[in-house]
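Sequence design from tokenized structure. All designs in this work follow the same two-part layout: the structure record, then the generated sequence. An example of the structure record is given first.
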């Protein structure tokens, strides 16, 4: 399927909390944004030396490896939600506590290049999935974390979530 212009989701398509991510993404070309993030984010992250990827900007904050691991986890969870809803599965999906995923993920013990390759591969896979959705699939909704959410809202949330965390990486970790 060719890339589609996917308009920003409207009220009722996502929980208000997610507006903070959706607002970071330009209207219309969410697939282009997701694709561009492979190059822009990985370009910035590949410039980080492996030993520097373990640094925290403040005690108790995640390392850069943990931030990348978190972005991977969230993209997987939200991608799964998008797939279920796009296929017409109306089964409500539970939420997840992001902080509870960090310690068992053991991201600081993983090789830095492996995390970056995983992010790249996952994002490519996410893009292939989204590109395969027709216009009907983009409009479908489901319930996740007790809130209605559309497939198109999920695509914007994934893109905005990445922008949010990469802004933090650039401002708090790389600017020092």
């Amino acid at each position: 399927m060719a890339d589609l212009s996917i308009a920003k989701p409207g009220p009722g398509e996502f929980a208000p909390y997610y507006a903070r991510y959706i607002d970071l993404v330009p209207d219309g070309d969410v697939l282009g944004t997701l694709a561009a993030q492979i190059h822009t984010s990985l370009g910035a992250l590949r410039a980080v030396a492996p030993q520097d990827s373990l640094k925290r900007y403040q005690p108790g904050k995640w390392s850069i490896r943990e931030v990348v691991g978190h972005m991977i986890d969230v993209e997987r969870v939200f991608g799964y939600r998008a797939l279920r809803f796009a296929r017409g599965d109306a089964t409500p999906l539970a939420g997840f506590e992001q902080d509870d995923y960090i310690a068992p993920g053991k991201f600081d013990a993983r090789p830095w290049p492996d995390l970056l390759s995983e992010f790249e591969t996952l994002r490519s896979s996410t893009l292939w999935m989204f590109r395969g959705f027709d216009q009907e699939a983009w409009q479908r909704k489901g319930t996740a974390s007790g809130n209605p959410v559309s497939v198109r809202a999920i695509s914007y949330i994934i893109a905005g979530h990445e922008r949010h965390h990469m802004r933090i990486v650039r401002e708090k970790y790389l600017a020092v």
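The two ends are 43 Å apart (CA to CA). We note this feature because it recurs in several other targets discussed in the main text.
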